[in-house]
Protein 1
Amino acid sequence: TDQERDQARQAQAEEAERMTREMEEQDRLWRLGVGRKMTEEQQFHEYHQKWDEIGSSCTPVGYENIPWVVASNCAPAQIEEAKSVLLWGAAVGQQKIVLTKEVKRWHPDKFQ
């Protein structure tokens, strides 16, 4: 019936809103952690955990949900820090593979 469909839609909307609030809270906590100057290893794991959460979620992803490594108007020191985080634990011979994976993550349209 129409009433049942409306109830189902409302339940889906409420669930999506709950999941969005939960992801926003996780993002807020993640950003606070970054502000506390986590180690490169901690940042590496947090960064990849955020991407895993985005990949397993059915909720739409917005700009604020993306685990940015550095701000768009960052200083050269921040770029070096981002490289350290992204390449944490990668052997010299593996760095190109790691960076290629990141490029594919950020620009999937270039690799179809």
Protein 2
Amino acid sequence: QKIIKEGADSNEMYAIAQGRVIVEKRGMSVGELETGCAFGEMAVLGVTATQSLTVRADTLCDMQVLSRWELDHLLTDFPEERRRLLQSVAAMMREDFAEVTNQEILGEVWLLQ
């Protein structure tokens, strides 16, 4: 069963409390995630409004869901945690982009497809 679909609008992230999922890009499997992992963090942070990957359950999964609005409400009361979270996300994005080729980036630009 698909949990999120590539290209779909999204404002939620998911944490896998139990189970295993398959991660796909353009119909090809690119990895697996299991108990303790999370996905959709860019959507919940508002970095993107659409999902860049498809994630489907490989086993029965127990998922925890956090919406952008719930996170924003929580972090309003904890500004120091907001700052730390944004710094962590920025560091992760720098690391992720360091591994991405120019061709992969250009492949994501709808105008060039």
